[in-house]
Automatic annotation (TrEMBL):
Gene3D superfamilies hit by this protein: NADP-dependent oxidoreductase domain (3.20.20.100)
Gene transcribed to yield this protein: LOC105233928
InterPro entries noted in UniProt: AKR (IPR020471), LGALDH-like (IPR044479), NAD(P)_OxRdtase_dom_sf (IPR036812), NADP_OxRdtase_dom (IPR023210)
Taxonomic superkingdom: Eukaryota
A Pfam family per the record: Aldo_ket_red
Protein name from the UniProt record: Uncharacterized protein LOC105233928
Organism: Bactrocera dorsalis
Amino acid sequence: MSLLPNTFVKGVHDEELSKRMEYRTLGRTGLQVSKVSLGTATLSDLYGELDLDDAIAMIHKAIKAGINYIDTAPYYGQGRAEEVLGMALKTVPRQAYYIATKVGRYEKDLVKRFDFSAKRTRESVEKSLKLLGIEYVDIIQIHDIDFAKDLDVVVNECLPELVKIVKEGKARFIGITSYNLAVLKECVKRAPCVDIILAYSRHTLLDDTLKGYVNFFQQHNIGIVCASAHALGLLTNAGPQPWHPVADDVKVICSKAAKICKEANIELGKLAMYQFMQLEGASTFLVGMETCKLLDINLAAYYNGLSKKEMEILQQLRTTLFTKSYNWDGVEMEEYQRALSKAK
C-alpha cells in the first residue's frame, strides 16, 4: 500500500484506489508521481475520431483513481489535446495533479513541424497555459530534440529560454524527449538544467533498449518517464494508425500477435502494458488513453497483473514472434530530411 501523495485531495480522489497506486520520486524534482501516468496524444486526431464526453470522463476517472501525472503537447492535434485537457481540468483543483507539456514540435506539415527557437518556445508556453487554463506547468519539455538541426540550438537557445520561464514561475522543472536515446544522453551531459527525460516506445514487447540507459540517467539524478506501452498503437488488437513509421514486416508481426490475442479473447494492449511496467528505475509509466474502457484495461494490468491464460499467451508471443528487437530508428528523420531538401 502507498502513502497518499501531496496531490491527494479528499473528495477528488478515491482514497482506497489512491492507496493502491504506487508513487515514486521523479528524479531530483522531488515530485511524487503515480507509477501509471496519463498520456494525451490520443486526445487528438492522431488516433482517429475522439468521443469528447468519454475522453473527459476518462481524465476524471484517471485522476480519481490516483493517477497524478499527465503529459501533453502542442503537437497533439495542434493544441486540441491541450484544449480537451483544459476542459476536463476546469473542475479539478490545481493541487490534485502534475502536468507536463512540451515545446519544439508543432505542425503536421513536415517542413514547419519543428522550431526550437527562443521566440517560438516562449509563444508556445504562453499558448499552452491559456489552453490548459492554468498558471504554470510542473514540467516543460523540449519535444523530440533529435530533430533539432544540432544540439547547439537546444542547449544554447531553447533550454536557456526554458530556464527563464521556470524563474518566472510559469514552469517548475525542465525535461527533454526523444526516440533516439543517445541524443537524450548527450543532452543530459551538456545541459545540467535538465531534470527529466521522456523516452517512448523503448521498453516494450518490441524493444527494450531503454534498459541500457537507466544507470546513466539515475547517476545524474534524472527522472525517467517511460512512455508508450503500445509502441504508438502497434501493440494493440486494433493495430496502428496508417502514419506509423515502422517497417511493414514489423506491422505484420504485430498483426499476427493481435490475431492470436483476439482468438484467445485477450487484449494485446493489456499484455503490452504489463510488460512495459517491468522496467526497473523508471519513475512513471506513461500510457496514452482516450476512453474509460482503455483506462480500465491498463489499470487492470497494473493492479491485478495478468491471468494464467494471459501469461501463457504473453510467453507464447515472446518465444514465437517477439524474438528480437524491432524499432524504427532513423525512419522519421529520413522522411524529415527529404521534406526539407525538397522544400529548398
